[in-house]
Write a structure and sequence with these properties.
With about 350 residues, this protein is of the alpha+beta class. The protein has helices at about 1-30, 115-125, 140-145, 310-315, and strands at about 45-50, 55-60, 70-75, 105-110, 130, 140, 150-155, 170-175, 185-195, 200-210, 210-215, 220-230, 235-245, 250-255, 270-275, 280-285, 290-295, 300-305, 340. It is built from four helices and 19 strands. Mean pLDDT is about 75; it is low at about 1-35 and about 230-235.
Length: about 350
C-alpha cells in the first residue's frame, strides 16, 4: 500500500510542476504582439503627428463599433482637409482685385471700392447667394451696393478632450464692411456645419455676427457669442449677447451679457469651455474675473466675481484647470454663485 501511494505521488508532482513552468512558456510563445488597447468607439480623437517636419493635428473618426472610418490632417499653410459647406467660398472678383489675406483658398479679404455696384452684384450672384430674400444664404441688395470690402474665413473647432468627442464644428464666416474701420460691418454671418464621428452632417445653422462657439457633448445645444472680426477665428470685439441654440427644436435663447456680467470691454472673454452639460465662460472686467456657468437644460445661469489673480496663481502653480476647477486649482461650488433663469416667459 505504501509503495503504491509513493508511486502514484511522483507522477502527480511532475504533472503539477509542468503546469507551473511549461504552460506559461507555451502561452508566451503563442503571441509575439503585445496586447492592443481597444479602439475608441463613436468619437473623434485628435493626436499630433509630423508632416514635412512640422507638428500638425491628426483627426481620427471612429464608428460606434470602434472601426476607423477616416483620418484628416491639418497641413500647415494649406486649406483644411475638412469640407467647406459655405457658398461664400466661391466668391471671386477680378484678378485685378488684390486678396489681402494671401493665397489661401479658405481666407480672403477683397477691397472692392474700385468696383461699380453692378460688378459687386455680379460677383455675389456667381456664388449662388440669394439676394433680397429671407432665410439662409441671403444678403440684402443694398448691402452689396454699399460694400467696400468682403472678408471670408473658414475654420473648425475641436475641444481636444482626452477621451475624444462625438461632434466637430466647422465654421465659415463672411463679413461685408462699408468703411475701413473694424466695427463698421454692415453684414456679418457665420455658417456653422456640425459633423459627427463618421463625418456625416449632423446639423447646419446660420447665426449673425458669430464669434466663439461650443457644443454640449450630446449634440443638443450649441453655444455662441456674437462679435465682429473674423480673421482666422479671432473675434475683434465681443459685443454680445450670448446665444443658446437648441439643435433639436430649432429654438434660440438670447442672453444679454449685461444681464449677469455687467459691462465688459472688447476681447473680454478669456476662456469658453463645456463640461458636457454646462457651458462655462470666463470674462474679464477691469480687476475682476467673472465665471459664468450656463445650464441650457434647466435654463439657469450661475455667476460669480473673482479677483483676476486666479489665473496668475494658476500659472505660477503650473496648473491646467479643468471643468470642475477654477484656474488656480480650487474647486468651485455653484451654491455660492448668483443664480438666474433665462428664456422663461
Amino acid at each position: 500500500m505504501y509503495y503504491l501511494k509513493k508511486k502514484s505521488f511522483v507522477p502527480l508532482l511532475g504533472l503539477c510542476l509542468s503546469f507551473v513552468f511549461v504552460l506559461p512558456y507555451l502561452g508566451m510563445g503563442q503571441s509575439d504582439e503585445p496586447n492592443k488597447l481597444p479602439s475608441p468607439r463613436g468619437v473623434i480623437t485628435c493626436t499630433s503627428t509630423i508632416v514635412n517636419g512640422n507638428s500638425v493635428d491628426k483627426y481620427s473618426f471612429y464608428d460606434d463599433s470602434g472601426n476607423l472610418v477616416s483620418v484628416m490632417v491639418d497641413a500647415l499653410g494649406k486649406p483644411y482637409s475638412f469640407p467647406d459647406y459655405c457658398l461664400w467660398k466661391s466668391l471671386k472678383f477680378s484678378p485685378s482685385i488684390e486678396n489681402k489675406r494671401g493665397s489661401r483658398d479658405d481666407e480672403y479679404e477683397y477691397d472692392v471700392t474700385s468696383l461699380s455696384p453692378k460688378e459687386k452684384y455680379a460677383a455675389v450672384r456667381k456664388t449662388g447667394i440669394t439676394i433680397q430674400k429671407k432665410g439662409l444664404n441671403s444678403v440684402p441688395r443694398e448691402v452689396i451696393m454699399q460694400a467696400k470690402s468682403f472678408s471670408y474665413a473658414n475654420y473648425h473647432f475641436y475641444e481636444y478632450k482626452k477621451e475624444g468627442q462625438k461632434y466637430m464644428i466647422l465654421s465659415s464666416s463672411m463679413e461685408i464692411r462699408g468703411h475701413d474701420t473694424l466695427l463698421s460691418s454692415i453684414f456679418a454671418k457665420s455658417y456653422i456645419t456640425i459633423i459627427d464621428n463618421v463625418g456625416r452632417i449632423y446639423k447646419q445653422v446660420e447665426i449673425e455676427n458669430g464669434g466663439s462657439r461650443n457644443m454640449s457633448s450630446d449634440g443638443r445645444y450649441l453655444f455662441c457669442t456674437k462679435g465682429y472680426g473674423i480673421y482666422g477665428d479671432e473675434v475683434g470685439c465681443v459685443n454680445g449677447p450670448f446665444l443658446i441654440n437648441d439643435l433639436v427644436s430649432g429654438a434660440i435663447d438670447t442672453i444679454p451679457n449685461e444681464k449677469f456680467l455687467g459691462k465688459f470691454s472688447c476681447d473680454g472673454i478669456i476662456n469658453i469651455r463645456c463640461d458636457g452639460k454646462n457651458f462655462q465662460v470666463y470674462t474679464s472686467s477691469g480687476p475682476s474675473i467673472f465665471h459664468v456657468v450656463i445650464n441650457p437644460y434647466s435654463q439657469t445661469i450661475f455667476s460669480k466675481e473673482y479677483d483676476n489673480n486666479i489665473f496668475v496663481r494658476g500659472i505660477k502653480k503650473g496648473i491646467t484647470f479643468d471643468d470642475a476647477h477654477l484656474p488656480d486649482g480650487t474647486i468651485f461650488d455653484l451654491n455660492s454663485y448668483k443664480m438666474e433663469q433665462f428664456g422663461i416667459n
